[in-house]
Design brief:
Blueprint (H helix, E strand, L loop, with lengths): L1 E8 L16 H13 L6 E2 L8 E10 L8 H8 L4 E8 L12 E9 L11 E2 L7 H10 L23 E8 L5 E8 L6 H14 L4 H10 L14 E7 L16
Parallel strand pairs: 3-9, 5-6
Antiparallel strand pairs: 1-3, 1-4, 2-3, 5-8, 5-9, 7-8
Helix pairs in contact: 3-4
Length: 258
């Protein structure tokens, strides 16, 4: 039977989600934990990939099991996993739905703070002293749903079958005193490093070093900039994944409140 696992993780200590040789990844630790619990190799399939240092407030993977279990699997796997990886729900599914290919929308959030704060370190990206124009950044964000080819904001566009992404919404929010920012973007799919590269350009719009016309020209001409300058990874969160048959609220409260 197929099960969907609803999880979240702090990606600071991991080289991303996907399993790779000689590095520690989230997928590797979960597969190891499940294999230890069931005393047989268990393979899992995630809803996507996250880069090294990137977090997930909501993430899904699926796994198949031949037999039922007579113990509290959520309790046991959370006990085995490190504190920075949590399983929120285990959901029995009908048929063979796919955690990656069936997802119809993914939402990411990117957090920025402009002052040094030890309690935000690792969870938000520090850009000290930045004077960011919220109105201009939102004007740039409003341009994004008007285009669907994001080759200009991909590290290696030629490695993709195509670079079409249907961005449905993109918006910046600011704290009352204007020293913290949140960028939220939703699309059916994202390209490798796309959000961090995009965020790097949006920050330049915010500080006045890149005009709105120059920003839009990347989307018009579909040409990767000579200098990509992606934003830092630690402010980025995969915050929501939606399926036609499954639409859960993110578990972490900070992703729901701003």
């Amino acid at each position: 039977m197929r099960y969907f696992f609803h999880i979240g993780y702090n990606g600071a200590n991991y080289c991303g989600w996907q399993k790779h040789a000689k590095v520690i990844t989230v997928q590797q630790l979960i597969e190891t934990a499940l294999s230890q619990i069931f005393k047989t190799p268990v393979t899992i399939n995630g809803c996507g990939r996250t880069d090294a240092g990137v977090h997930a407030g909501q993430f899904f993977f699926h796994a198949d099991f031949n037999d039922d279990w007579n113990f509290d699997l959520k309790f046991r796997i959370n006990k085995v996993l490190p504190p920075d990886i949590a399983v929120f729900d285990i959901i029995a599914m009908e048929g063979l739905p796919h955690a990656r290919f069936d997802a119809v929308q993914r939402q990411y959030d990117y957090f920025i703070h402009t002052y040094k704060d030890p309690f935000l370190h690792g969870f938000s990206s520090l850009y000290p002293g930045k004077k960011l124009d919220l109105e201009k950044m939102n004007q740039a964000a409003e341009i994004l749903p008007l285009y669907n080819d994001y080759a200009a904001f991909c590290k290696s566009p030629d490695k993709n079958e195509h670079t079409i992404c249907h961005v449905s919404s993109a918006r910046f929010y600011a704290s009352l005193n204007g020293d913290r920012f949140r960028f939220q973007i939703s699309s059916n799919r994202f390209l490798g490093r796309m959000i961090r590269i995009l965020m790097g350009k949006l920050l330049k719009v915010g500080d006045g070093s890149l005009s709105l016309d120059e920003f839009e020209s990347y989307l018009v001409h579909k040409k990767t900039p000579s200098r990509l300058e992606p934003a830092y990874p630690q402010g980025l969160y995969l915050s929501k994944v939606t399926y036609p048959y499954l639409d859960l609220k993110p578990k972490p409260d900070f992703l729901l409140k701003w």
